[in-house]
Every structure is written in C-alpha cells, then in structure tokens.
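Risk register update: the risk of archive-format incompatibility is retired. Evidence:
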Amino acid sequence: MKINEIPVILHSMDSYSRFWNPWYQLFNDVTHIKTGAGEWGERLLRALNQIDGELVFYMQEDFWCVNDYELTDELLDLFIQYNMDQLHVKEKSHLVSLSQIKNNLYKFNQNSNYTQNHQFGLWKKNKLIENIFPHENPWKNEVDGSKRLNQKQHNVYLLDLHWYITVCRRGQLMDRGQIILEKYGINF
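Archived output:
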C-alpha cells in the first residue's frame, strides 16, 4: 500500500458549510460522500462503512492548513513500524500527556486526555469504527471515547508538526482563522 491510496475523510455537516470554501482552497483533491441526516457518530459510521481499505485519514473542517505538508510513504512506514492505531499529525498540546519516542514523534500516555480526538490523523479504520457511537456528537466522543480507549492498551501517537490548526470553536471563527483568510486572500 502507498500513502496516496489511503482515503482522507473530512467530516462536516451543513451547519458548518460556511467553512467549506476556505477549507477547499487550503486542501486539494476532494471526493464527496453524502451521509444524510443524523447525529455526528451515525453519519461518520455511515461514511466509514462506504470506504474500502484498512486505513483512513480523518479530519474535520474546523482546522485549516497553514503550511504545506506532503503525506509520504515514510509516514506510512512509521505507522506500520510502531503498530499504531492512530497517528495524529499536528502540534503538541498542553491538554494531552505524551512521551517522546524520538525527534518529533510522541506516544500518548495511557490515561491522557484526548487520546480519541478528531484532528488530522491516520487511523486503523476498525479502531476508529469501534470507538464511534451513533448517538455521540464530536465533543462527547472525544471525552467519552478517550475514557473508553484508555481502559485498554492503545497505540496512539503524535507527530508534532505545525501545519494544521484549529480556526473555530463551536461554530465561531477564531481570530487566527481570520488571519489565515486574510493571508491567503480568501473571502469568507
């Protein structure tokens, strides 16, 4: 398998549609999968079940790219080498507990907050599916999903890179999102 064969899921909903155009301008090569109505978890499970393969990249529209980053086969090799369940590619946060493995590679500690999170990451699709409940919204899934995930041994990792940052909270554009729009001349 090659990295460019792994699907990238951008999970969104109509109420966030005002963020789509800027996101599309900051990210290339998109195919739409309609998931219909329902709670976040139900719609995500519907999407995941339409995708072949054992691995998926997952992300949401409330984070935008701020620097170029090329997904390479070396990332996939790293994922396989450490038998990862998830590999998040983003900046470190003070909200999580990590142990450094080497250079900018970290492992989430067993009882860290946000071991289940929806920022950009490469996932074993079955690990994502088994920790998404149809009735959950994304915030509940991050909190309750982390508790469930932490009840057993997990292999959740982080590659610390500044390329993809949060630009809105609970549907409201943050100042940093406005700065990105201005920097790239994107109308919002």
